[in-house]
Design goal:
Blueprint lengths: L3 E5 L7 H8 L2 H4 L4 E5 L3 H9 L5 E4 L2 H9 L5 E8 L5 E4 L16 E2 L6 H12 L15 H9 L5 E4 L3 H6 L4 E5 L9 E6 H6 L1 H20 L2 H8 L8 H13 L11 H13 L9 H4 L3 H7 L2
Parallel strand pairs: 1-2, 1-3, 6-7
Antiparallel strand pairs: 3-9, 4-9, 5-7, 5-8
Helix pairs in contact: 1-9, 5-12, 9-14, 10-11
C-alpha cells in the first residue's frame, strides 16, 4: 500500500480514536503506513489537502457543508465517522442542577473562540428553547483556558469548553451545568479527502477505516485509564489523571459511534444548525458531502 499523509487540524482529547489507531498500531495491523502532521487549525488542514500537501485529513463535516454550500463543485468528501456527538459543555462556578438554556441570557457567558461549530450548535439549541441568541451578550474573544479562569475567579458565570478544560475547572470548584452531547447525534469529526484521492487511495483509505473501526471498538472496551496511557505521549501538557477523567466522561456520553458508518441524522443536525446560524444559504445534501461506500467496502457491511 502507498504511504498516507494525514493532516490533523489540532490536538484534542475528543479525537482519541485517531490517536489510539496510531499509538496502538491499528493502522500498521491493517497494512497501511500513516504519517500524521498537525496543520494547526481546520482551515489549514483543508488547504493542505487542496494543495496536495496531505492525502487525507480529519475535521468537522461543517467544512464540507460550508464549502459545498459555496461551491457545489468542491471536490472534498467526508467519510469514516469518528466523533458523532458534541464534546462541548457549559460549566459554572458550582453545581446548578436546575439550569436550563433559557437561563443563559441572564448570565455572564463566554462562548468558544477557537472553533465556530460549538457556538453554531448551541445557538440552534437556544433557538429551539425559545431564546434569541442574537440578542445575548457574550464574551467571544477569549480562549477556553481564559474563560475557565474567568469562571473560577468569578468574572464569568458560565463558559463553553471541552476536555481537559472542563476537568481542570472542576478541580477549582467548577461544575458541569449542561452537556451538548445530550442533544443526540451531531456530526463533529470524520476523515475527508478530495474525490480524486478517494479513488487513488481507495485501498489505503479502506485500511484506515478498518483501523479506526478497531479504535472505536477499543475506546468502549478499554478502561479510560488504559486509553489515557495509550494517548498520553501526545498530550505532554495534560496529566494522565486529567486525560483519564475526560475520556471517561466522553465514554459515558457515547461521544464516538460504534462503527465508522456516517449517520445521516448527525449530518442533518449540523447542517440545520449552520443554516440557523446564517453561515450557509444553500443546504448541500448528505450524498453530496458524505461517501459511506468506503466504509461499506472496508467493513463488508
Amino acid at each position: 500500500m502507498k504511504p498516507i499523509r494525514l493532516a490533523e487540524p489540532f490536538r484534542a482529547v475528543f479525537y482519541a480514536p485517531f490517536y489510539v489507531a496510531e499509538q496502538r498500531g491499528f493502522y500498521a495491523r491493517h497494512g497501511v503506513t500513516v504519517t500524521r502532521a498537525t496543520a494547526g487549525d481546520p482551515t489549514r488542514a483543508a488547504e493542505a489537502l487542496l494543495a496536495d500537501q496531505a492525502d487525507v485529513a480529519w475535521s468537522g463535516p461543517m467544512r464540507m457543508i460550508m464549502m459545498r454550500a459555496a461551491d457545489p463543485a468542491c471536490p472534498l468528501r467526508s467519510f469514516c465517522a469518528v466523533v458523532m456527538r458534541d464534546p462541548f459543555m457549559l460549566l459554572g462556578r458550582g453545581p446548578n442542577p436546575g439550569f436550563s438554556l433559557k437561563d443563559l441570557p441572564k448570565l455572564r457567558f463566554g462562548s468558544v473562540k477557537e472553533v465556530p461549530t460549538p457556538w453554531w450548535c448551541l445557538q440552534d439549541d437556544l433557538r429551539q428553547a425559545g431564546v434569541d441568541p442574537d440578542a445575548m451578550a457574550r464574551v467571544t474573544d477569549k480562549t477556553m483556558a481564559e474563560n475557565a479562569d474567568a469562571v473560577a475567579e468569578g468574572r464569568l458565570d458560565v463558559a463553553q469548553m471541552f476536555e481537559p478544560f472542563a476537568t481542570r475547572l472542576e478541580a477549582k470548584g467548577g461544575a458541569v451545568w449542561h452537556r451538548a452531547s445530550d442533544r443526540g447525534p451531531s456530526a463533529y469529526t470524520a476523515l475527508y479527502a478530495t474525490a480524486s484521492n478517494i479513488q487513488r487511495f481507495s485501498a489505503e483509505f479502506e485500511a484506515m477505516t478498518r483501523a479506526l473501526a478497531d479504535a472505536l471498538a477499543y475506546v468502549y472496551a478499554a478502561p479510560a485509564a488504559e486509553i489515557a496511557a495509550s494517548v498520553a505521549p501526545l498530550f505532554p501538557d495534560v496529566t494522565v489523571a486529567e486525560l483519564t477523567h475526560g475520556l471517561a466522561r466522553y465514554q459515558a456520553a457515547r461521544l464516538w459511534p460504534e462503527t465508522p458508518h456516517f449517520p445521516e441524522a448527525a449530518f442533518t443536525q449540523l447542517r440545520g444548525a449552520m443554516k440557523s446560524a446564517g453561515v450557509i444559504g444553500r443546504e448541500p445534501s448528505f450524498a453530496d458531502c458524505v461517501d459511506n461506500a468506503i466504509v461499506t467496502r472496508a467493513l463488508g457491511r
